[in-house]
Amino acid sequence: MEPKQKNKPNALVISLVALVALMIVIYFIFVLFFPTVFDSMNTGELQPVKPE
Question: What are the transmembrane regions (predicted)?
Fold first, then answer.
């Protein structure tokens, strides 16, 4: 009996998943240590239109 061959994902897929996970971790580190940078970001909230 031969041992079954395991289905391994491509190296590119592993790299992309690791990169996304690393970016999420870096984002949370930035939010922890530099909260003022993210306070001024536009979140897409609706604001009333000011008449001129």
Answer: 12-34
